[in-house]
Write a structure and sequence with these properties.
Belongs to the ParB family. Pfam families: HTH_ParB (PF17762), ParB_N (PF02195). This is ParB/RepB/Spo0J family partition protein. The protein is α/β, with parallel strands linked by helices and 306 residues long. The protein folds into three domains: 133 residues, Conserved hypothetical protein from pyrococcus furiosus pfu- 392566-001, ParB domain (Alpha-Beta Complex); 99 residues, Arc Repressor Mutant, subunit A; 49 residues, no CATH class. Helix content is 55%, strand content 14%. The chain contains 14 helices and eight strands. The strands form two sheets. Strands 1-2-6-4-5-3 form a six-stranded mixed sheet, sandwiched between helices. The protein has a two-stranded antiparallel sheet with strand order 7-8. Strand 4 and strand 5 form a beta hairpin. The longest helix has 20 residues. The radius of gyration is 27 Å and the shape is flat.
């Protein structure tokens, strides 16, 4: 890709966002040419070493979960190699800064027991903070599909963007943005399955095409229980459209995991013995009681007879 094409592509991210993504290469180039860390560029001061205690996390951070093992790995890398890519912050006071991007690097640096961290300091208002934090995460942090959808939703609501404008900001076409936004119409438990990587974006798109909530739940349960591929789920959706799947069963015998756990606790309390309870979507299952002695068996018989 030519330099002109790269510049053209970045322009679609908006003025402040393009500048953010160019911070690293532009600032490093400037520092190399000048041989110092003096001066500034487009509202950005060159790199500074800032005490970690002076930096507060970004209140607009869209990512809700950072895998602890991955943070530990990054912390170990930082102990060995140091911070290769500085974080980006804005100054909010004489001894206070607010993180714009680099949440994982900041958290891992704390785990690595660093006292200071290299950072680019730039000027940004609240709206720019929201945009930069959301888009930096969307493009660089491998958010799951629901986190991306929620980030899109926040950009539209908090930055007053239309879908076509949002697409230009994040470098996606409107249909892609729409597909992500539609995920937020799924039931909460299906959204949770996407967050936990139990089903993929492809599975979710199949499920959201189903207007019948009972059928949607049936196929979702089978996808999880039988580990269906996207192709198999697509086939099941097509069969349902052709009337080959019962979309309105008379009685649904499936129970959710919380109900199952509740019944298991009740049985354990009643028999005063460890109980294992399993049940499939048809309502069939088994109950196992763990007996360690004759006294346990006697107590069980007494419970049944009482």
């Amino acid at each position: 890709m030519s330099k002109q094409e790269q510049n053209k592509k970045r322009t679609g991210l908006g003025r402040g966002l393009g500048a953010l993504l160019e911070d690293s290469e532009n600032l490093q180039s400037s520092a190399s040419q000048s041989g110092s860390l003096m001066g500034g560029l487009d509202g950005v001061n060159l790199m500074e070493e800032i005490p970690l205690a002076y930096i507060e996390t970004n209140p607009y951070q869209p990512r809700e979960y950072f895998e602890q093992a991955a943070l530990e790995d990054l912390a170990e890398s930082i102990r060995v190699h140091g911070i290769i890519q500085p974080i980006t912050v804005r100054k909010t006071g004489a001894r206070s800064y607010q993180l714009i991007s680099g949440e994982r690097r900041l958290q891992a640096s704390k785990l690595a027991d660093l006292s200071r961290i290299p950072a680019y300091v730039r000027t940004a208002d609240d709206q720019q903070m929201i945009e930069m934090a959301l888009i930096e995460n969307i493009q660089r942090e491998n958010l799951n599909a629901i986190e991306i959808a929620l980030s899109y939703k926040r950009l539209m609501e908090e930055c007053q963007l239309k879908q076509e404008d949002l697409g230009a900001r994040v470098g996606k076409n409107r249909s892609t943005v729409t597909n992500y936004m539609r995920l937020l119409k799924l039931p909460v438990h299906i959204q949770l399955a996407i967050r936990e990587n139990k089903i993929s974006m492809g599975h979710a798109r199949c499920l959201i095409s189903l207007e019948n909530p009972t059928l949607q739940q049936q196929l979702f349960s089978k996808t999880i229980a039988e580990e269906w591929s996207v192709r198999k789920l697509e086939d099941a959706v097509r069969q349902s459209a052709a009337g080959k799947v019962d979309a309105n069963p008379q009685v649904s015998k499936a129970v959710n995991a919380e109900e199952l756990r509740s019944w298991q606790r009740q049985l354990t309390d009643h028999f005063k013995l460890p109980v294992s309870l399993k049940m499939d979507d048809s309502g069939k299952g088994e109950v196992k009681l763990l007996i360690k002695s004759a006294a346990d068996l006697k107590r069980l018989l007494e419970s049944i007879q009482s």
